[in-house]
From TrEMBL:
Segments passing through the bilayer: 42-59, 71-93, 136-155, 175-195, 202-221, 233-249
Protein name: RsiW-degrading membrane proteinase PrsW (M82 family)
Keyword Repeat assigned: no
Keyword Transmembrane part of the UniProt annotation: yes
Domain of life of the source: Bacteria
Keywords: Membrane, Transmembrane, Transmembrane helix
InterPro entries registered for this protein in UniProt: PrsW
Length: 269
């Protein structure tokens, strides 16, 4: 318990604080001297702070970052996340004309399906059909998606008064996205790739379907609570959704742990 209260000593916290502080410094400089050329960088660091901090925490707990070559993870971040955003953005615009109406409850099904497409394309090759690799790839894809989506929200928040509103949007999304997009996609991948590792091939099981349905429902509930016309106090239920989302992801990955370092044998004189 004492270690939990010393979270500020962990790498994930230092990464989160440093990245968020860099974003805030860039926005402050933009407001001070009017140089808006650095705004994309400010938005990128602000959008990345929370997701990257969580990635560091998960890797320190599970070691999954070593299960896939770094270049593959970067490719999934850039192109997998981008392709998911392309698909999600297209079908969201096509099927959800009113962002503040009941159709917003379809978003979870659309975006979780969109994020699954790049991951399925990799899984079909059969190269990374193990749980650790699948979770690493899923988190990379979700991180790319979440960062680019958060940057789009930030751009929409820039107004005549400057980028301060955008900075606040990025800070709030930085707190939320690690327990939303990353948790939902990570849950699906943990269950799916775990099942595929056991069978040596892609197969749709009840557990895989259940994980996808749970992620899509939680995703849609989150967006509904934030976007629909709901009384103020009820909106706070999105915190419960975030907690349940991360709890399910953590349970699905509790068997992924870093191998303990070997203890050297005592020397004999």
């Amino acid at each position: 318990m004492r270690e939990h209260f010393r979270f500020y000593r962990h790498r994930w916290f230092k990464v989160w604080i440093a990245t968020a502080a860099l974003s805030a410094a860039l926005i402050t400089m933009t407001e001070a001297v009017g140089n808006r050329a650095v705004m994309p960088a400010a938005f990128f660091y602000g959008a990345a702070a929370g997701p990257v901090g969580l990635l560091v925490a998960i890797h320190d707990r599970t070691g999954i970052g070593a299960s896939v070559p770094g270049v593959t993870l970067v490719g999934m971040f850039l192109f997998g996340g981008g392709a998911a955003l392309l698909l999600g953005g297209y079908f969201n615009a096509l099927l959800i004309p009113d962002k503040h109406g009941p159709s917003i409850l379809q978003v979870g099904w659309i975006e979780e399906s969109a994020k699954s497409v790049p991951l399925l394309m990799v899984a079909i090759t059969g190269r990374y059909l193990n749980k650790a690799a699948g979770v690493a790839l899923g988190l990379s894809c979700a991180t790319g998606f979440a960062i680019m989506e958060s940057m789009s929200y930030a751009w929409r928040s820039v107004d005549a008064t400057g980028a301060v509103n955008a900075g606040m949007v990025l800070f709030m999304r930085g707190l939320a996205t690690p327990f939303s997009h990353l948790a939902w996609t990570g849950l699906i991948c943990a269950v799916a790739f775990g099942a595929w590792q056991l069978r040596g091939r892609i197969v749709i099981t009840l557990s895989v379907v259940g994980a996808f349905v749970a992620a899509a429902v939680l995703h849609s509930l989150n967006d509904g609570l934030l976007m629909l016309d709901i009384p103020g106090p009820a909106r706070l239920l999105f915190l419960l959704v975030a907690g349940v989302s991360y709890w399910l992801f953590h349970r699905a990955t509790r068997d992924l742990t870093v191998a303990p370092s070997p203890v050297p044998a005592p020397s004999r004189a």
